Amino acid sequence: MRVRLLPAVLLLPLAASVPVILPAAPAMAVEEDCGAVQVKEAGEARSAATRESAPLEQLRIEEAHAYLAARGKQPGAGVTVAVLDSGVTASGGVRVSEHVSVTGRQGELDDWHGTAVAGLIAGTPRADDAGGLVGIAPYAEILDVRVFDSGDAASTEGKPVSADGLVEGLGVVLAHREVDIVNVSLFVDQPDPRIAKLLTRLHRRGVVVVAAAGNRPTEDDQPLYDDFGTPEAGQDAALRVFPAGYPSVVAVSATVDGLGDREDAAAYVLPNSRTDVAAPVVGGVTVGVDGGTCTVDDVVTSWAAAEVSGVLALMRTADPDATGDQLVARLLSTADGRTDVRSPMTGAGVVQPLDALRRPVTPAEDGTLDTTAERSDRRAVAPEPEVDTMAATRRDAVWWGVLGGGVLLLALVLRPLLARRGPRSP
Predict the structure, then answer these.
(1) Rounded to whole angstroms, how far apart are CA atoms 122 and 133?
(2) 8 A C-beta contact, residue 351 and residue 327
């Protein structure tokens, strides 16, 4: 089975068991790029991003935090998000409840991807001069489930991404009943019955699984290039990207907001009919492997999935009694697109965290919405006035009663007068 990692890289099987790493999309040169951050020795200065996180500004996360604060709640508090990835740094920057490795390797990380994902979800705010938010749900706890060691499948330093690792990681999640949300920013290109079975069990428990919807290959020796190397009408990666392809999973794509008006998302991400929602990623600030802050600027669905996991953590904080299906229904029905006519690039649209928190959407426990109460564009419909079929009859009866009473009164007044006058002579 071929496997794919969804940061700025894809894994290409050169032979049955000899994959190599290749860039998935052109990267922008930025200061404090997360891929360049190295683990620091004690006493060394940590990396420090010097700008605000553009995606968090676009998603109005500060307003979402203020909404929760006004209700006495901290963003992400009481929520546990499992991150199935390359491991999360123990140097700080995120609240890690437990580090679990299914690869057999512990300690120092070989790959920065898992830390960047965890930072986008729950990175703590910066305390340095730059200030500003890092993660969407900074009070959430991260369950670090290390399912691979290196994105370079040819590396001898540890295990690469594999379906077996993903199966083991999902098994770890099932053993931790406190988990509310699972983030999977990697994929395999074939369905796997073991993965499907584990996802079904998690869904029944009410756990929401979020996964990346796929990046576009840009070189002819990259996997999926024959089918998706060039953007064409009618392309659909739904049957080539898993676990995003499973119906119980929230599949997330990325937008090109921040790259310029002429940029086309199809050059960076795959059209996927299973896509549920999308999120902006360019200019994101997250956590580096040294525990400091750094930036990500590639249009990559890994980062988008992490952001949506953070948004769901905010929603879980706001409504701890909601079912997983109810949270997902609110997420989709408050996005800026349409749930009835989904786009293969953005699904129901770009997530709107503030609306997801405060809009009066009330799905049933299984996530279904009363379509008679809400329009497909998710704006509430004013109730139709009740038709009173007897109103006209009652109105006519009243007028006839008034008229009849007037005639009777007139007769009573005239009768004595006519009696005194007597009959007239011919």
Answers:
(1) 10
(2) no
